[in-house]
Automatic annotation (TrEMBL):
Naturally occurring in which organism (per UniProt): Iris pallida
Ranges of residues in domain Tryptophan synthase beta chain-like PALP: 118-456
Domain of life, source organism: Eukaryota
Family: Belongs to the TrpB family.
Matches recorded under InterPro entries: Trp_synth_b-like, Trp_synth_beta, Trp_synth_beta/beta-like, TrpB-like_PALP, TrpB-like_PALP_sf
Assigned GO CC terms: cytoplasm
EC number: 4.2.1.20
Protein name stated in the entry: tryptophan synthase
Alphabetized CDD domains for the sequence: Trp-synth_B
Length: 495
């Protein structure tokens, strides 16, 4: 038993192993081990008080508990309220119903749960070595989503999206990807359901991350650099700028155009929309049970935000508990200084893509023409924040901060050299904010419980680490003047 208390083997299916040395008297971890055999659960080991955490059977819809409902999406041409049938060229019926639903809980199909068992439940881990390095009285926990086949949280929504498309007879799905996490995940999910998959990858990322492209191709996807000559939207961009590094907004336009012009094809999105954040709440639902299992309540919850799916996935179930008066954590979103949609963006209706083909959504936006600097490392490059997260931010239920990328990678190095995991560039922003908070706790002598969303590993992002370690990484900021200029192209909506 003493040996077990010092060495925690986590999710053998993922190949991830974690060891803790030294004092184990304060070790309070709920890490659960599972195998998958023909989609049936096998026995799991539990560390903590002996309880076993099960995969949630329902997703949570925050809309049901908000005191003020979020503003509705609008038709991109008429600016009138969007009807569900307006979305039918892009999404299967069930996902449209989830997008507009105000039901508190939505059942997860058994077929989806069976696939989730390949890597869920994911571990909740206490970062004791990082705590020692920082000499902080804070207790730091992270919910680690990198045990999935694609190495991030993205399969949590890729699998149900592929499932609902396949169930409704769709033959092919198209999507975009930036850093490649989402493209990898939807390629993986489509391979399980026999769907064709086509991905437009932001050109800068396509060039920088060849192994993400190969990962998608291994799972059977076709991958195009965006902007491309395949679509009208791509050709227009290339005519204006033949060397365009691309953006998620441009890649979305190309994927949406393809879906809208092919009857047997639907579009999938990896973040931003309500149904995507809904699927990701499996993270927070598991984590609530894990935290309860070890007798801890978070004082602060921190997660990185680009489109908002991993942040909302962890935070929304805890926000439900906060709204009901059961706990009162500070909920903090962290974004890149190079793409500060929450902290500098304008809260207004804007298109989700560059060409203006998607519905208008009220969100914090830098303008749909936003193109991130190609030296911005990693993901978190989208011009707008998820409408639901933007709404929650406007209601004052969460806060946001932007951090420059050199501080983020410095924090990632500290994390990797203590906890062993090499984080993806996205969660380095959360790690940097956690370190700031832990050092504040040290100065103030506060024993806070800090919970962090650790959304994936960085094994395909080592070029960014090389740039940092060689001293070639520079900080980027997005000036307010550019945001003001971008507002000139945003549609004027009168409701």
């Amino acid at each position: 038993m003493e040996l077990l208390s010092k060495h925690l083997v986590v999710a053998p299916k993922s190949g991830f192993e974690k060891s803790f040395l030294g004092d184990t008297s304060r070790l309070k971890l709920s890490v659960h081990q599972k195998f998958s055999s023909h989609c049936r659960p096998a026995p799991r080991a539990s560390f903590g008080n002996g309880n076993t955490i099960k995969i949630p059977k329902q997703w949570y819809n925050l809309v049901a508990d908000l005191p003020q409902k979020p503003p509705p999406p609008l038709h991109p041409k008429t600016h009138k309220l969007l009807n569900p049938e307006d979305l039918s060229p892009l999404f299967p019926h069930e996902l449209i119903m989830q997008e507009i639903s105000d039901e508190r809980f939505i059942s997860i199909p058994d077929e989806v749960v069976d696939i989730y068992r390949l890597w869920r439940p994911t571990p909740l881990i206490r970062a004791k070595r990082l705590e020692r390095l920082l000499d902080t009285p804070a207790r730091i926990y992270y919910k680690y989503e990198g045990t999935s086949p694609a190495g991030s949280h993205k399969p949590n929504t890729a699998v149900p999206q592929a499932y609902y498309n396949a169930r409704e007879g769709v033959r092919n799905v198209v999507t975009e990807t930036g850093a490649g996490q989402w493209g990898s995940s939807i390629a993986f999910a489509c391979s399980l359901f026999g769907l064709g998959c086509e991905v437009w990858q932001v050109r800068a990322s396509y060039d920088q991350k060849p192994y993400r492209k190969l990962m998608m191709q291994t799972w059977g996807a076709k991958v195009h650099p965006s902007p491309s000559n395949i679509t009208e939207a791509g050709r227009k961009i290339l005519q204006m700028d033949p060397s365009s590094p691309g953006s998620l907004g441009i890649a979305i336009s190309e994927a949406v155009e393809t879906a809208a012009t092919h009857d047997d094809t639907k579009y999938c999105l990896g973040s931003v929309l309500n149904h995507v954040l809904l699927h990701q709440t499996i993270i927070g639902e598991e984590c609530l049970e894990q935290m309860g299992d070890i007798g801890e309540t978070p004082d602060i919850i921190i997660g990185c935000t680009g489109g908002g799916s991993n942040f909302g996935g962890l935070a929304f179930p805890f926000l439900r508990e906060k709204l009901s008066g059961k706990m009162n954590p500070v909920i903090r979103a962290v974004e890149p200084a190079a793409c500060p949609s929450l902290t500098k963006g304008v809260y207004t209706y804007d298109y989700g893509d560059t060409a203006g083909m998607t519905p208008l959504m009220k969100m914090h936006t830098l303008g749909h023409d936003f193109v991130p600097d190609p030296i911005h490392a990693g993901g978190l490059r989208y011009h707008g924040m998820a409408p639901l997260i933007s709404h929650v931010y406007e209601l004052g239920f969460m806060e946001a901060v932007a951090i420059p990328q050199t501080e983020c990678f410095q924090a990632a190095i500290q994390f990797a050299r203590t906890e062993g995991l090499i984080p993806a560039p996205e969660p380095t922003h959360a790690i940097a904010a956690v370190i700031r908070e832990a050092l504040h706790c040290k100065e103030a002598g506060e024993e806070k419980v800090i919970l962090m969303a650790m959304c994936g590993h960085g094994h395909f992002d080592l070029a960014a680490y090389d740039k940092y370690l060689q001293g070639n990484m520079v900080d980027l900021s997005y000036p307010s003047e550019k945001v003001e200029a971008a507002m000139a192209s945003i549609p004027k909506v009168l409701l």
